[in-house]
């Protein structure tokens, strides 16, 4: 029920009261004039109604008929298009009849409505705060939703929320913050809004609000199997990572079937080619897919991103941390945390726990890693950290980091010492000593570590490339001072060249990136299934897909499809966490990458979650 309609209903009650007013002929004449004016208002003849109500108001008498004539005069003025006159008349009513409690709430409601329409949000909210009758809650909320949700100025919304802690303002601000690029999002404020006001982020998918459920869901795996038809190629392909990933997915199908979840899995060979992928997607039947998994390379990824958005089909990239995939596409998901989420998680830890020495070095392996490095730097510099080194080191040159940490370089001695040595030789020369050059060029130099002791507090590796982290940790382990390592756990799944004991010794800190705990019962169950099916133990790779990831994605997302339907994000956004099958948790409430990134440490040669 709109604001105007509710007011008219209440005014009918007022008219019943007015029928009891006075019995003099003069009072009867005013009553007739009032009824005529009200009838004109009801017939939406606002200009005529204004004239009649104005005649009654001009009588200057202090009775209810005159008061209500003034009230309806203001309403008529508003509907005639003169909101300024209406606002003035309502203000006069408040000034002339400060004790008129019967209509004070309606007057404030109208004043709020007019103020909102004029963009005077603070004024409108002030009027709403003076309404004391709980029966007006519906109209108040309707006004707030209609006008406050139109405000797009983020700074104004923050200011409003500071003075008017209202969940509708908070919800609008949250929607605005979540519309930003992930790299620019203020996740501290976002988390605060959700917690303080108990808000569930809204899912807005091109006006869609339904997620159809099906008996059988169609999932397409788009991977570079690169099968060319010859037997030698087939042998190679069967030992390559895409097939291992597929093996995991097929085991996941069996697991889901035991839970009465039916999935139709189709595979498509993208051959690392955008052209090949585009040709595959041209088949109209693929518009019936409910979920796409993959691809692995930039060209095919671009084609799937376009196809996903155009045809409203969810897809999940199982390998990338590139948050650009998610921009302006509510159907795109990352299995791993994005570069941005990893940077945010690491920065939050650093700003709380690594403040003793605020000098920092940041290394990354490629342009793809650069957003993680840049966001991490931006976040920690807000807390006065000093980034003294930010450098891209290619994987084949990763030993350079270790060399920086452990190798000595020759540097000039301090100026006073150099001056003393020169003065000494000058005095020998003046004295006629033949061998006056007692100091060589090297004597004027000292050997020092390239990175001086205690000159760095920690090193952040903004990459999942194992060689960079291995180089840093080996270098730190060889030093006598304390430098902390902070990085992602994703590379730990590889056959790293450094031991867990070494990681524990240097007190390495990791942001959990879909870490798999091999002690978990579901992981043991998967390994048993794999061994029984393929007579081999599944291999865990560092950056490429493998059976673990294929199984985890199939089981986890198959359950999401079964539980929430084709557009499972409608359910995901209502949950802070959803459990993974092999990994611990996924968090997609605030973005379409997995923001569940616990802090991990090495304890007794095992990876464990840490609160410190």
From TrEMBL:
It comes from the Bacteria. InterPro entries: Peripla_BP_I, TPR-like_helical_dom_sf. This is Leucine-binding protein domain-containing protein. It comes from Roseivirga echinicomitans. Signal peptide: none annotated. CDD domains: PBP1_ABC_transporter_LIVBP-like.
């Amino acid at each position: 029920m709109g604001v105007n309609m509710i007011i008219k209903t209440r005014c009918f009650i007022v008219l019943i009261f007015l029928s009891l007013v006075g019995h003099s002929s003069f009072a009867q004449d005013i009553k007739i004039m009032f009824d005529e004016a009200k009838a004109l208002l009801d017939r939406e003849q606002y200009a005529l109604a204004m004239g009649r109500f104005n005649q009654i108001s001009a009588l200057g008498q202090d009775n209810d008929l005159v008061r209500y004539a003034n009230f309806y005069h203001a309403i008529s003025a508003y509907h005639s298009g003169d909101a300024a006159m209406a606002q003035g008349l309502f203000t006069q009513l408040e000034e002339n009849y400060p004790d008129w409690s019967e209509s004070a709430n309606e007057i404030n409601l109208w004043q709020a409505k007019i103020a909102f329409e004029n963009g005077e949000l603070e004024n409108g909210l002030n009027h709403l705060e003076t309404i004391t009758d709980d029966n007006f809650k519906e109209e108040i909320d309707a006004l707030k939703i209609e006008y406050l949700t139109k405000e797009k100025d983020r700074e104004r919304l923050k200011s409003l929320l500071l003075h008017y802690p209202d969940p509708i303002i908070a919800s609008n601000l949250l929607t605005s913050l979540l519309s930003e690029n992930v790299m620019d999002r203020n996740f501290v404020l976002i988390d605060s809004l959700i917690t303080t006001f108990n808000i569930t982020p809204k899912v807005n998918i091109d006006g869609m609000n339904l997620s159809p459920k099906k008996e059988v869901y169609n999932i397409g795996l788009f991977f570079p199997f690169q099968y060319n038809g010859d037997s030698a190629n087939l042998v190679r392909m069967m030992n390559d990572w895409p097939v291992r990933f597929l093996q995991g997915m097929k085991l996941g199908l069996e697991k889901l079937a035991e839970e009465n979840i039916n999935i139709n899995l189709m595979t498509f060979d993208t051959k690392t080619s955008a052209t090949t992928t585009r040709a595959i997607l041209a088949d109209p039947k693929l518009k019936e897919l409910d979920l796409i998994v993959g691809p692995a390379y930039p060209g095919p990824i671009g084609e799937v991103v376009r196809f996903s958005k155009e045809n409203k089909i969810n897809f999940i990239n199982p390998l990338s941390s590139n948050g650009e995939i998610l921009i302006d596409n509510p159907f795109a998901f990352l299995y791993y945390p994005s570069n941005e989420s990893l940077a945010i998680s690491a920065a939050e830890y650093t700003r709380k726990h690594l403040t003793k020495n605020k000098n920092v070095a940041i290394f990354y392996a490629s342009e793809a890693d650069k957003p993680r490095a840049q966001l991490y730097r931006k976040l920690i510099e807000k807390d006065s950290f000093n980034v003294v080194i930010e450098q891209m080191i290619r994987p084949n040159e990763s030993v350079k980091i270790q060399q920086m940490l452990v190798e000595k370089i020759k540097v000039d001695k301090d100026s006073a010492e150099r001056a003393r040595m020169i003065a000494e030789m000058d005095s020998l020369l003046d004295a006629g000593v033949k061998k006056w050059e007692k100091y060589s060029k090297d004597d004027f130099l000292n050997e020092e570590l390239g990175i001086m002791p205690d000159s760095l507090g920690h090193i952040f590796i903004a990459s999942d490339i194992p060689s960079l982290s291995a180089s840093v940790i080996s270098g730190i382990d060889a030093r006598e001072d304390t430098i902390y390592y902070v990085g992602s756990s994703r590379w730990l799944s590889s056959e790293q060249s450094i031991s867990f004991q070494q990681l524990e010794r240097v007190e390495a800190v990791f942001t959990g990136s879909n870490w798999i705990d091999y002690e978990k019962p579901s992981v043991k169950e998967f390994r048993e299934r794999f061994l029984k099916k393929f007579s081999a133990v599944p291999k865990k790779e560092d950056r490429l897909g493998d059976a673990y990831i294929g199984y985890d994605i199939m089981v986890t997302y198959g359950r999401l499809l079964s539980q929430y339907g084709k557009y499972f994000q409608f359910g995901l956004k209502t949950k802070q966490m959803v459990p993974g099958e092999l990994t611990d948790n996924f968090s997609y409430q605030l973005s379409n990458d997995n923001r569940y990134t616990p802090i991990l440490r090495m304890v007794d040669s095992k990876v464990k979650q840490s609160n410190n």
